[in-house]
Amino acid sequence: MLTLTGVRKTFNIGTVNEKPALRGVDLHLAKGDFVTVIGGNGAGKSTMLNVIAGVFPPDSGTIELGGEDISRLSEHARAKHLGRVFQDPMMGTAADMQIEENLALAARRGQSRGLAWNITREERAEFREKLATLGLGLEDRLSDKVGLLSGGQRQALTLLMATLKEPELLLLDEHTAALDPKTAALVLDLTQKIVERAGLTTLMVTHNMHDAIRTGNRLIMMADGKVIYDVSGEEKANLHRADLMAKFEEAAGNELASDRMLLG
User: Fold this and answer.
1) Tens digit of pLDDT for each residue in 192-206?
2) Which of 62, 68, 151, 170 holds its CA 20 to 30 A away from the CA of 78?
């Protein structure tokens, strides 16, 4: 479903602030893979997601999605193939619009729109059904402005919007990091249910080692712009935090053992 081959990205080339962010990333995701991505600050995790999404073009290398080379496609041209949830719960929704209006925008992603745009009775019934699966009571608040919702409710709504059209690839960029622990656990649980139910191919960046280990069917670790560890199947199922810390120190060097990521 997704293949990165030799992807490189350097910021501020030729200046004193030159920063290599990706140093030849090779990565392949099969259809239905749920891959958690962990690493220290500056490891290249979010840059990799941004390059896949088209926010930044790669300096070299190729990105293929569903067998198509999308390396040079613009961000908006890729948007119809991707779903994305950011760390900030405020980024994925329009606060001044109603819940049903936000969902309608998500439902029409990639379609042409005219002035006679409205929400049909069938769509409203579908929105209620989808919202009910979140277990947050939002199905009875379709006309409420999204700005009235809590951060956790907004993030759950954003997750639903990102997956409403069952994208080819779902990108989750530390989407529970800004939430309190109880709400973060709820949103992560909803994430697993939605991904498993639809069989979505997913990349989830996280700083939390526990979440990275217990979520998905595969885990990759990044450091210094490269993938340094890739584990799946039974080996991942038997992985513990101590094992992950040992692998991180072995592959990336002891100086990274004090990174904030390792305290997650």
Assistant:
1) 999 999 999 999 999
2) 151
